[in-house]
Amino acid sequence: MEEMQRDALSNSLMQQASKVLSEARRHLKDGAYTQAADRGWDSMVLAMRSVLALDDITEQEDLKAVEAFRQMYLKSEAMPSEWASLLDQMLQWKDREKEGQQPLSKEQAGRMISRLQGFLQGAVDYLVQRNAPYWG
């Protein structure tokens, strides 16, 4: 993929991530905590895909994109270590959700969304650091 195409894809994915996180905040405000966490997960995956796109990695499956992100950016310490714990928290929540376990409380969902806001901002900062244009 050409550099301009990678930059455009990365930018598009990050804009989507930002929009989806706004939806998560609306769900949180409306008391729909499970939906807020679902949209939070989606925004995180989109942000990871945005960063991966800069290195020409375009995994289609969420878990493959997550693993590629973990290998390239978290294990190599190219990204902050607290992102690994957020990713683990989100994966644990997704597992609990699949098993039909107890829903999130307002406080849990609020902390999750707050941490995801920091994650997205960090991903945008990374794009800027890599000189990728971001028109968010």
Question: Can you walk me through this structure?
Answer:
This protein has 136 residues and is an all-alpha fold. It has one domain: Four Helix Bundle (Hemerythrin (Met), subunit A) (Up-down Bundle), CATH 1.20.120.330. The protein is built from five helices and no strands. The radius of gyration is 15 Å and the shape is globular. The model has no long low-confidence stretch (mean pLDDT 89).
Radius of gyration: 15 Å
**How many domain regions?**
1
CATH class: Mainly Alpha
Helical/strand content category: mainly alpha
Number of continuous helical runs = 5
Q: What is the end-to-end distance?
A: 22 Å
Architecture (CATH level 2) name: Up-down Bundle
CATH topology: Four Helix Bundle (Hemerythrin (Met), subunit A)
Portion of residues in helices?
over 70%
Q: Please state the overall shape, judged from the principal axes of the Cα atoms.
A: globular
Low-confidence stretches: none
Secondary-structure element series: HHHHH
Number of strands: 0
Going by CATH, what is the homologous superfamily?
A: Nucleotidyltransferases  domain 2
Biggest sheet overview = none
Report the average pLDDT across residues.
Answer: 89
Tell me the strand percentage band: under 5%
In short:
Helix content is about 75%, strand content about 0%. It is an all-alpha fold and about 140 residues long.
